[in-house]
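Most newcomers find our protein records easier to grasp once they have seen one. To make this concrete, we reproduce a full record directly below:

===
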Amino acid sequence: MVLSWIDLGMVVNYHDQDGVFDVQIVVAVLNAVAYIVVMILYYFFRKYGVRSSGTVFIFWFLKAFFGIIQMRTEAKLHQARDNPIGSGETIVFAEYQFVSFTLQYAFICLILLLEILPDQAPRYSDYPKQRNPNPELKSSFFVKLLYLYFDSFTWTGFRKPLTDDDMFDLNPEDTSRELVPPFDKYWYESVENGRRKQMA
C-alpha cells in the first residue's frame, strides 16, 4: 500500500518526463484506493472472526494473474535499456517503475500464497464448542473452492465404513437454531400479507 502512494507521488513528480502518461496517475490512484478498501475489509474480517474471504482471495489472485503481463513488459523494457539502474545522475521514471513494480508484484504473490492459509480461529464465539467441528470452518477460501477439506472424510470412508462418530457436526450457521427464526419471521409476514389480501 505504501508503494502505491509512493508511485502516485513519483508519477505526479515526473509527469513531464518522456514515457510518463496521464493514465499512470489514474492507475496509481486506483491502486491506492483498492489497497485501502482491502485494508478496511481485513479490519472487519478480523473484527467479526472471518477466517478466510473469497473477495480478498480473488482480489489478490487477479492482481497476481494480470500482473504477469506488466511484469513481463517491465522485464523486457529493463533488458532493452543500455544503462543499469541508478547509473545516471537523475532518476529515470522507467527505472523507478521497474523496481517499484517488481517489489509490488513480489509482495502480491507472497500475499496470495498466504491467502491460501486460513487465519486462526477467533478467540470468542457466540456458538457453543463442538465435539467434531466441520473442517470447512477452519479452511481457507481456496480449500473451500476445491473442496479439499472433504478429502480426509472421503479417505476415512474409503478405508472403513463410516459411523456416527466419523460425521462432522453441522456448521453453527447451518443449524436450525440459526435458520428457523429468520424463516419463521418471513413466513409469518407472508401469511399475514396473504390474509390481508384475502380480507380486502
Remarks:
- The two ends are 60 Å apart (CA to CA).
- The chain has seven helices and no strands.
